């Protein structure tokens, strides 16, 4: 295809994103799920071109601004206030989920080594805050539940990608547990140091300008200045971006007028809308090719999709088994609060939808990975299935569990 065709496809894709968002609000179906279906349908049109982006493009171009935009908008005060549930959901649950899914896949694929199986488990572990919180806000869940879901997504995206990198490195050599732990620790600590330095510098630089155009232009560059140096020293660019975003967001409220903050937030919401939903549209469009690859490699797509659904079952069971006792422990001894905490735990546990990070990260699996096409299709299936299940069942579950007349804005201890 020539430049004209690519330009026309990109422009048409934007219109499709807008139309899908409008339709999803009318019919009550999550926009990501609708976009996956639309993308899949478009791929079967006559003479539909094959579109495949290198995984590095998604990891380097899409994830940094998406995570930065979410981190900047997330209040540090809320992060500190809900640090315990966010940290527990964002790190231990990711590791446990990755190990559980990885072990199941390791047993089902005889030629798949354990490190590669855990790598796919890490891909499937992070939740997608956009899908879950959009539903949560629409049906009026308590603000604290929404905060925990958003904070969890920021942390578990980072921890999952660090675990993915560690597993891939372990799969390329003889597994060494102390070395893997050291790699994980350095990826985290080094990234936080880089992110803090870039965040403080960016906050200072932004404070020197009062023009929304100039401030927004600077902010578009900031996530890449956090991501690239961290990756250059073998730390996690994702953690660096999240750290930078939290710091910049914390300082923005004091350094800029409300009008400037509103203009910048609008620009970032637009960019994140296009990037996030564009990935889901591309995910649906590529499903046909990945099914074809699965058949070409000698597998049955039906069996592979069934494995994806099995992975979803494992993820749901592990998440509920983790969140219920966790919230019970956090709310122990608070009387009625403990009962409400259990309800919140069920809602948070059932809100484990997968999304853009899963879709992007699975394509980072090395080409030499055994069963790679099947593993990609499993990840795509898991993301689509969790969006469908969550989108259809979370609203009735919330209506059943939420006490009548309880305010979504209340300061409840989720």
UniProtKB/TrEMBL annotation:
It comes from Gryllotalpicola reticulitermitis. The chain crosses the membrane at residues 6-23, 28-45, 57-77, 86-109, 184-204, 224-248, 268-285, 305-324, 345-365, 371-394. Keywords: Cell membrane, Ion transport, Membrane, Sodium, Sodium transport, Transmembrane, Transmembrane helix, Transport. It is a multi-pass membrane protein. Residues 15-399 form the Cation/H+ exchanger transmembrane domain. The keyword Transmembrane applies. It is found in: Cell membrane. This is Cation:proton antiporter. Pfam families: Na_H_Exchanger.
């Amino acid at each position: 295809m020539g430049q004209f065709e690519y330009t026309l496809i990109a422009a048409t894709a934007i219109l499709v994103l807008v139309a899908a968002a409008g339709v999803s609000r009318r019919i009550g179906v999550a926009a990501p799920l609708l976009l996956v279906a639309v993308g899949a349908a478009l791929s079967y049109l006559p003479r539909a071109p094959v579109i495949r982006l290198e995984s590095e493009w998604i990891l380097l171009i899409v994830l940094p601004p998406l995570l930065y935009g979410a981190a900047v908008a997330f209040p540090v005060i809320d992060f500190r206030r809900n640090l315990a549930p966010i940290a527990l959901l964002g790190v231990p649950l990711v590791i446990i989920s990755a190990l559980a899914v990885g072990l199941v896949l390791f047993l089902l694929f005889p030629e798949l080594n354990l490190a590669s199986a855990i790598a796919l488990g890490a891909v499937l572990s992070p939740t997608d805050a956009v899908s879950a919180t959009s539903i949560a806000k629409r049906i009026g869940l308590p603000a604290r539940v929404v905060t925990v879901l958003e904070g969890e997504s920021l942390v578990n995206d980072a921890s999952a990608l660090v675990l993915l990198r560690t597993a891939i490195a372990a799969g390329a050599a003889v597994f060494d547990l102390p070395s893997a732990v050291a790699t994980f620790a350095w990826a985290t600590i080094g990234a936080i140091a880089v992110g803090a330095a870039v965040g403080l510098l960016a906050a200072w630089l932004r404070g020197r300008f009062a023009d929304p155009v100039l401030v927004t232009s600077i902010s578009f560059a900031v996530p890449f200045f956090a991501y690239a140096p961290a990756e250059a020293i073998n730390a996690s660019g994702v953690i660096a971006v999240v750290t930078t975003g939290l710091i910049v967001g914390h300082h923005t409220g004091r350094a800029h007028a409300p009008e400037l903050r509103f203009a910048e937030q609008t620009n970032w919401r637009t960019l994140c809308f296009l990037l996030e939903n564009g990935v889901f549209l591309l995910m649906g469009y590529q499903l046909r090719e990945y099914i074809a690859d699965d058949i070409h490699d000698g597998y049955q797509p039906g069996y592979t999709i069934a494995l994806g659904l099995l992975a979803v079952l494992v993820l749901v069971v592990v998440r509920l088994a983790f969140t219920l006792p966790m919230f019970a422990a956090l709310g122990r001894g608070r009387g009625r609060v403990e009962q409400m905490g259990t309800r919140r735990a069920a809602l948070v546990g059932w809100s484990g939808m997968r999304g853009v990070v899963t879709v992007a990260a699975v394509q980072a699996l090395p080409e030499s990975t055994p069963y790679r096409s099947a593993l990609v299709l499993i990840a795509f299936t898991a993301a689509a299935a969790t969006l469908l299940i969550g989108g259809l069942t979370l609203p009735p579950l919330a209506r059943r569990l939420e006490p009548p007349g309880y305010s979504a804005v209340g300061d409840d201890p989720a």
